[in-house]
Specification:
It contains 7 helices and 11 strands. It has about 250 residues and is an alpha+beta fold. The two termini are about 20 Å apart.
């Protein structure tokens, strides 16, 4: 197949639209636990995003491992309870780190062998973000965002937010750490973690901006000592061909 085995310095990010696959297709590869969790969602759009993320994770990991999507050993663990939710783990002998995210009509799955990974995608808000800014950004970050033209501030906030989410998902802490305690570079700069309250050197967190499409912001973060992380983005439509060696990556 054209998708080469992941090397240490590589990260693959897969994209899907939850409207593209039929429910039967999504259900066909999921585990009993995943189906049980899907049934707990009350809103159809939330259920479909979860199903799509689970389907995409299994198919992308299967393409990497050379096994059937239904046979991918996925486990979800929550640090706060015993319920099978939280970040996904691929239970393979050699580490295959995974992360998922979804917002509106975009679903993302990140895979890498380089180290713990976090991916985040968010729809750019259309309403004023002043309330979000006050609770999510530090004073220094608020000042950086405040100098942007007003019509750029929603997109600027979204870019900074997904950066914070990605790094906190990579560590597994998520929003148990207040986001205003995590400082990142401004929206016009290359993504970078500047400071946070964890005993992990910010310099070991590699962050790359993603291209989820117009109206969205996306980031992926990998915890690794390797200086260079190459991110390749793929569309889910390639999965139907990947085992026939005819998939091609979208622009990184």
């Amino acid at each position: 197949m054209n998708d080469p085995a992941l090397k240490t310095g590589e990260c693959h990010v897969w994209w899907a639209d939850p409207r593209d696959q039929s429910i039967d297709t999504l259900l066909s590869v999921l585990s009993e636990r995943e189906l049980e969790r899907a049934a707990t969602y009350r809103r159809d759009q939330d259920r479909r995003r979860f199903l799509t993320a689970s389907w995409l994770l299994r198919n992308a990991a299967a393409a990497q491992l050379g096994i059937s999507p239904a046979d991918v050993p996925v486990e979800r663990r929550c640090p706060d309870c015993v319920k099978p939710h939280g970040r996904p783990y691929i239970l393979t002998e050699e580490p295959l780190h995974a992360s998922i995210s979804h917002s509106a009509n975009r679903v993302a799955v990140a895979l890498t062998v380089a180290g713990p990974v976090g991916v985040d995608v968010e729809e750019v808000p259309t309403a004023p973000v002043s309330e979000l800014v006050r609770c999510a950004l530090s004073k220094a970050e608020q000042a950086v965002l405040g100098v942007l033209p007003e019509d750029e501030q929603q997109a600027g906030f979204a870019r900074m937010w997904v950066c914070k989410e990605a790094v906190l998902k990579a560590t597994g802490h998520g929003l148990r750490i207040p986001p205003d305690k995590v400082e990142v570079a401004g929206p016009r700069e290359e993504p970078e973690l500047l400071s946070w309250p964890l005993d992990i050197a910010p310099a070991t967190v590699r962050i790359r901006a993603l291209d989820p499409g117009e109206g969205y912001a996306g980031m992926v973060a990998v915890l690794t000592d390797h200086q260079a992380i190459t991110v390749t983005q793929w569309d889910a439509s390639a999965l139907r061909d990947i085992f026939l060696s005819s998939a091609a990556p979208i622009a990184a």
